[in-house]
Prior knowledge:
Two copies of one chain form a homodimer. The first copy, chain A, is 31% helix and 38% strand. Chain A is α/β, with parallel strands linked by helices. Chains A and B meet through helix 2, strand 3, helix 3, helix 4 and strand 5 of A and helix 2, strand 3, helix 3, helix 4 and strand 5 of B.
Amino acid sequence: MKLLEDKILNEGKVLDGGILKVDGFLNHRLDVALIGELGADIAREFVGCGATLIMTVESSGISIAFAAGEKLRLPVLVAKKHKSLNISDGVYTAPVFSFTHKTQNTVVVSKEYLSAGDKVLIVDDFLASGNAALGLLSLVEQAGATTVGFVAAIEKEEQGGRALIEQKGVKVYSLARIKELRAGEIKFN
Amino acid sequence: MKLLEDKILNEGKVLDGGILKVDGFLNHRLDVALIGELGADIAREFVGCGATLIMTVESSGISIAFAAGEKLRLPVLVAKKHKSLNISDGVYTAPVFSFTHKTQNTVVVSKEYLSAGDKVLIVDDFLASGNAALGLLSLVEQAGATTVGFVAAIEKEEQGGRALIEQKGVKVYSLARIKELRAGEIKFN
């Protein structure tokens, strides 16, 4: 999606360790018009896929998932991120390791809001190693529900997450697909 | 706002300690159409107020602030919540005590995205004791910016937060204003 690629080229910052900082428009300060366009693009790609629910994880995925939900007229389930595994009954949980923060988290959704009949479109801000994605896919599997697609606003191809998701038979769609990420040089696929 | 009041009466759950659980439509599972209406209502109230920026705090305020930002065509700055005070330079920080979780957090925004000229409309999901609100107001003050209003989707009047904000000369607007919160009995103002 050219709009997002241009924004990344103009305003994204590449930090050490292959981290792409998009604080100015996607994470910390939200460019509402841009994110609305991301939602519209996701809706165009997945209209008619039969999704009953969009799922994301707090907190950077929320606005993108919400924008997609508006266009597809679907509710959004926000998985919570916890530091501990000490969590009440009535929830599905999955471990997620963050390479960026070098921390182990647990993602959690209430069983009340994810049912066996659900067809889930997962939307997140980044796809990198695929660790967070696998955690979210696991929540859907535990509920006996189906994942109809995984969407990332930004994919960092070099970290290989796409293959892990596709191995599970899930379609991956990213709005900006970064092939090479170096300071001063970002190449898209 | 009758739409939100009805939703609270029909789907909200009152837990011990005066906690109102709105997981099914506002916090965990997002009712996208409802939240879009909240955004439209906020926009009607604050159109022409001169706001340059909407500010909220992760993660439950994000979707409401985003919906308001869409209608008012304003960017949204999402204050981050940290457990520690050990935070890098280049940010404004304020302590916030959560009565619900009995924890001390720090709210943080980058100085890069909050400037002296900004007129800030703060949007959050709840107003209760006003502790979180005061933290966000402090961030605006530190930047030398102005707060043009504080919006809560749901206000729990009994906890007295409104007075603390109004004492600072800031207009408070809540979309559902709860006078009494008891299991089986919720009264609005």
